[in-house]
Sequence to fold (134 residues):
Amino acid sequence: MSLRHTALYVATASDVTAPILSSPTGTKTGSTTADGTVSTDEGNGTLYYLATINASETAATIAAGDSQAVSATGSQAVSFTGLSPSTTYYAHYVHDDAATNRSNVVSSTSFTTDAASSFNPAWAYNASKLIGGM
Fold:
């Protein structure tokens, strides 16, 4: 009687398909802030985003900016802060999936932040005291 051993190896297919980004937006929300959205076809990994004055950026430059986890396909919402008033920007996006496949880079059309507010609450308070004290 002989025993025969058979080994079974199952090869798993690795993810080699990069995410595809589309429909990038950037919209001012104030003098130093903006919101943006971009759509992705993969629901995992990390979305990188950056607002700059350049119409295009490299994936490496965008990946050095802000990031957030991606947990679903479809539209991803982001916020940009620390922008300069009265400045034209473009929102740039790149997505690395869980297998580290990098998407295409997409960029929004331009948007311009609002002008800085010239209202000074301290001045207004002092002026009201002067007027009221007359």
